[in-house]
Amino acid sequence: MNTATVPQAMPDAAPAEQAVAAVLQPLARLMIDQGVQLAQVSEMLKAVLVHESVARYGLNEREVSDTRVALLTGVHRKDVKRLRTVQQTQSKSAKQVISVPAAVIARWISEPRFLNIDQSPRTLAKSPKSGTLGEPDFPTLVAEISRDVSARAVLDELLRLGAVEILPQGQVALVDQAFVPQGSPAEQLAFLAASVGDHLSAAVHNVDPKRSAAAMLDQSAFSQELSVEQVAALHQHARQLWASVLQKFLSAATLAEQRSQTATDHSHRIRFGVYFYEQDQSALPDPGAPSKPARSSKRQGRNT
User: Which residues contact 219 (CB under 8 A, 6 or more apart)?
Assistant: First the structure.
């Protein structure tokens, strides 16, 4: 007896549409602030939809046809063909490279040789000649990260970014352990893209209906009905907690990188971050915020 295949029910798109709308709100602010028009984003969205459908939604290793891409994404078949042709001429490398200045700061705040007894970053001599024999100096630190860039060039860049300062004695002191580019708009936007992109990728991974791998860490806590002073105090407390966590995590990551050099497979990368956000709810209600709890209740986000 022939049995008909029962098609799987289509997922309810409404919850996903609401989630996308919430995510698009800050993106809309970014677009308006940076002068990005709808037509530009529409073209970019088409291109990304085509790329993702080809890269991640093939059928049994077969080449994905333009028709299938159009069915998956809603992008017109003519646009699919055009965009796939353009993408084939571009670089296929998606490797993210950590900048030398960022890597220098990461080593500075995590390597015991560059730390004081209280685990704070040491001030470093600008050159071996101006330092004390046997004590680490700034050129040594840079050389441990890269020998392709001079210590002078890295120092100039860190000074430009406001990450270090030169003390009266001629030593180099770290100003801020959290390396967030304060330079050009392009540098700040590149940081935003890398950080937010990875965070959103982790969240999307966790809600993937076909996910087989373990869920990734994506956890947050929130509190409401606070005064401006209380928000400022909590923000400062969060920064202090992050500084401690960052140092410990970078120490573990540095050790892992050293050990991975002997592994046969060391092609993976990770990102571990934290964020703090505050909003005046009386001035601008947030449609994506959780329902208001009782005053005495403090909720914590899902731990995945």
Answer: 300, 301, 302, 303, 304
Q: Per-residue pLDDT tens for 99-146? A: 788 889 888 988 888 988 888 889 999 988 777 777 889 999 999 888
Q: Which H or E run contains 34?
A: helix 13-34
Asked if 92 and 54 touch (Cβ cutoff 8 Å), the reply is no
Q: In angstroms, what CA-CA distances link 28 with 37, 45, 46, 95?
A: 10, 14, 17, 27
Q: How many Å apart are CA 204 and CA 195, to the nearest integer?
A: 14
* Domain extent at residue 141: 100-174
How do residues 231-249 score in pLDDT, each as one tens digit? 999 999 999 899 889 888 9
pTM reported for the whole predicted model: 0.70
Name the nearest CA neighbour of 136 among 111, 100, 166, 153.
111
Residue 33 is assigned to a structural domain of this protein = yes
CA–CA dist 137, 131 (Å, integer): 7
| 169, part of any domain | yes
In this prediction, what percent of the chain has a pLDDT beyond 90?
A: 41
